[in-house]
Design brief:
The chain is mainly alpha-helical and about 210 residues long. Helix content is about 50%, strand content about 5%. Helix 2 packs antiparallel against helix 3.
């Protein structure tokens, strides 16, 4: 069983007892993510498909994700949004493929008002239903919720940047965390994964 890696200062407070950290959600691996997307698309669960696609692509909290309107994505290369929690203005690139896919779904759903919100669902509804859809998509032993998309984004950025400390610093800023240590905890980075960073012995010839 992988242990959640917690920096010593956070893991052992002054009284010497171990601090327990409750995981409320997990990230998805690439194959799990695509399995869920495929299931939603195949079963015409278009709203949930976009919950996942936009959630991972933008790394927004659900409170911000649920404010996005069709016109904000269709035909656009950039999403500008003011975060509810932090009041920060974020500019997020919108890939052409995501814009086109969103437009295709808009037309398939035969919608007429692009000023409507894409996701008109309460967070409790999404969290309840996405667990069901994830299970039916064959995803096991994962706590899936609206937080899963931000964590999946973060883990993928970290992986693509060779699990570097620099990528964690940038993610910490993006997620508005008070420290990189908090970002490690948020992304469920395990002690085993950190220990692997020290596996450099093959560099020594002499």
């Amino acid at each position: 069983m992988a242990l959640l890696w917690v920096p010593e200062a956070l893991a052992y407070p002054e009284n010497g007892t171990m601090k327990k950290i409750k995981k409320t959600s997990d990230h998805l691996e690439e194959n799990e993510l695509n399995r869920l997307l495929k299931y939603c698309r195949k079963n015409q669960l278009y709203t949930y498909y976009l919950v996942v696609r936009l959630g991972v692509s933008t790394a927004l909290r659900y409170s911000d994700l649920s404010q996005i309107r069709w016109k904000d994505i269709i035909g656009k290369t950039e999403l500008v949004i003011t975060e509810k929690k932090t009041k920060k203005v974020r500019s997020i690139p919108i890939p052409t493929e995501l814009s086109e896919t969103t437009e295709q779904i808009y037309k398939t759903m035969k919608l007429k008002d692009p000023t409507q919100r894409i996701i008109g669902l309460h967070i409790r509804t999404v969290n309840k239903q996405i667990k069901i859809h994830a299970a039916k998509a064959g995803i096991r032993n994962k706590k899936v919720s609206t937080h899963t998309w931000r964590k999946t984004f973060g883990r993928e950025v970290w992986r693509r940047n060779n699990q570097s400390e620099g990528s964690l610093i940038k993610l910490s800023y993006l997620f508005n965390h008070s420290s990189v240590a908090i970002t490690r905890i948020y992304l469920n980075i395990t002690k085993e994964e950190v220990d692997d960073l020290y596996n450099i012995q093959d560099m020594f010839v002499h």
